[in-house]
Design a protein that fits this description.
With about 750 residues, the protein is α+β, with helices and mostly antiparallel strands. The protein has 26 helices and eight strands.
Length: about 750
Amino acid sequence: MERQIHLIWKIQRHPIALFMVISCLLIFSLAGYYRLNLDVDFSDYFSPSDPRLTALNSMTDKFERHDQLWMLLETEQDWRDDSAEVQLKAFLAMLNSDPNIISIQGYNQFVLGTAKAEKILSYKTHPRLSSVLSTDGRAILLQIQLDNSKITDFATQSLWLDEVLQTIDTNSQRYWQPLNVQVHLNGTHALNWQYAKVLLHDLSWFAPALLGIIFLMALLFIRQKMWILALALNNLITLLLTLGLAAWINLTLAAISAFVPVIIVTLGLAYGSHLYFGWRTKLSSGASTNEALQYTVSVNQAPLFYSSITTIFSFSLLTLSPSPPIQSFGILVAFAVLCNYLLCLTSLIFFAQYSSASTTRLLNFDKVVQLAKYNAQRPKAVIAGIVIFSMLALVSVTKLTLNDDPLSYFKSSNPFTLSSQKMAQYFSGINLQHYVVSTVEDRQIDKAEISFIYKFSRYLKKQSEVVTVQHIGDWIKAAGIGQNQFRQVLSQNSVQQLGLASELAQDKQSSLITLYLQPMTAMELLAFERKVDTWLAEQSADVKLSPPLGSNLLFAHLSVDNANNMLFSFAAALIALAILLSILKGSMIYGLIGLLLNFLPLLWVFALWQLNGGFISLGTAVVLGMMLGIIVDDTLHLMLKLPNTHMSPLKAVNSKVAASADSLWLSLQQVLPVISFTTLTIAGGFAIGLVSDFTPIGQLSLLSCLVVIFAWGFDVLMLPVLYLWWIVTKVKESKVKVEI
C-alpha cells in the first residue's frame, strides 16, 4: 500500500498528463456512442443461444403468426349491429389509409366478408370467429401488420415503433371517443412500446433526482465547493466512460438498465465521501490541507482498494445470469466502480488540494456512536435477540417462492396492463403456449398426427389451467369432413389456399397446437409443464413433438435459472469476503464477523419481504447478486480500522496496540459517522427507483434500501457488541492468564 500511496502523490505532480489521459479516454468513449443499441425489446432478456428461444423463433418462422399488434375495440353495443358495422367499416378504411399499415386481419375479415374468400374449406361457423368476437359481441379484435421498411429512417427501431403506434393509438382514440368506444393495443409491438416508454419515463425522473441527492448531501454535510465539484466531475466522467464501454463491446441494454446510472452516481458519492470525512477529521486537529489529504489517503487507501475489489467481484458475478441485460448490468457497474476508485485517488485529490480549510456543516452523525455505546451495554440481550430473530427469519425465507410474471411488470394503470385485462375478460387472454407436432418421416401430416392431436387436445382441455385449445382438428370439424377427405384436400391445395398458414407449416409436415392458459406465475407454469410432460411420457405415439413453446414459459425458465445463479453469486461473494477479512486481519474471527454483518441484513430483509407477501422475481433476485458488493464497503472500512486483537497473550499484555474498549470507541468515533453518511446517501439514491414505472426496478430499489439500512444497523449495533463481548473479553482472559 505504501508504494501505491507514493504513486498517487507522484501522479499529482503531473496533473496535465493526468487530465490528458482522462480526456483521451473520454474522446474514445464518445467516439463509440454511435454503436449504442438503444432498442428496447422483450426478447433482449433472453440469450440468443438459449435453445428454448431458438425453438420459439423457429416456430414463429414456420407458422404465420398474428400476435404482433392486436387492437381491441370495446363498446356498450353489439358490434354485429348494422350501425356499429358501418362505423367500423369507416374506421377500417381510415386504418388502411395509414402508410405504416400493410394489412388488417381479425374481425376485419368477417366484416368485409374475406374470411372465406379463396378458401377451399367452407364452414357453417368459422372455427376462429370466437377468437376475434366476444360472446356478448361487445369486443372485437383486429390484427394489424406494420410496414417496417421505414425503420431505417429512424435512429432506432424503438423510435420508429413509438411514432407509428403513437399515431395509430391517437387517431383511433380520436375516432372512437365520440362513440364511447375504448381502444386497447396488445401484442409484442405494444409490449415493446411500453418497455420503451417506461425506460424514457424512468430516465426523465432519475436524472434530476440524482442531481437533487448530490445537492442535498452537499448542502447538509459536505459544504465544500471544490470537493462537490470534484465528486460531481468524477461521477460524470465515470458515467461517460461506462456508456462508452457499453457501446464499444455492444452490451445489451434494457428497461432495467435505467437503474445503472443511479447505482454508479450513488456509489461514487458514497466512496468519495470516505476521503472527504478523513480529510475533515484531520483538519479539525489543526493540520494543513495537504497534510489532511495525505492523512486521508493513507488511512482510506486500503479500505477503498479492498472494498472496490469486493464490489467489482460481486457485480462481476452477475455475468453468471442467463439474461444478457443483467450480465450487462453487472459489467457496467463493476467497470464504473473501477473508474471511480482510480478517479478518487487522482482527480479528486487534485481538486481537493484547492479546497478551503472550513469544516462547518449543518448536520453530523456524532450521536451514532452514543447509540452504539448504549446498545453495547446489553451484549447478552442483543445477541440473544439477533439469534432469535435470525432463526425466525430463516423459517420465513424458506417459504419464499418464485412468483414472477413478466406481464405484471407494469403498473395497474399502464395501457398494456389494462389491455391484457381486457384480453382476458373478453377472450382467452395472452398467456399462450404452443406445441409443434411433426411427422417422423418427410411427408405431409396424416392420420397418425391428427389422431395424436385430438388425443392430446382432449387431455389438455381437462386441465384446470387451460382456457381453450386450438389446433388443425377445429378446421376439419368445422368443415364437416373426415380425416381421409382432409388428407386429399391437403395434398391438392397449398396452405395459403386453405387459409391454414397459422396452424400448418408450408411443407405440410408440421402442425401447431396452441393453448390459452389462465394467468399463471413462473412456478405454476413450470409445474404445468412437468405435469404435461409426465402425461406425454406415458404415451406411445409415432410423431415428433416439440417442447412447450411460449414467451411466458421462456421467461419462467429464465426466472428460475437467474434466481439460482444469483443465489450462487451471493454465496460466492460472501465466502470471498470472509476469506479476505480473515487474511487481512490475520484471524478467522474477523472473517466470521464480516460474514454475519453482511449475511444477516439480507436474511432479515427477505424474511420481511416474504411476510409481506413478497416473492422472488427478476428484480429481487438481482438484489441477492449485487447488494453484498455494496454493503461490504462499510464493513471493510469498519473492520480494517479496528484495532487487532488476534495477538498471542504475551503480546496482548505488552503491546501498546492491545485491544481495549477505549481503542474500539476511538476507532468507531471516526468511522461510524462516515458510514452513516454513506448509508444515507446510498439509501437516498436507491430510493429514486421507487418512482419507476417498471416493477423490477421498484422491487430492486425497495429491497436495496432496506438492505443498506439493515446493514448499517448491524454495523452500528451488532459489531461493537461482538467486538467487546467476543474478542476483547478473550484478550482480557488471556491477560489474566499471563499475570497468573
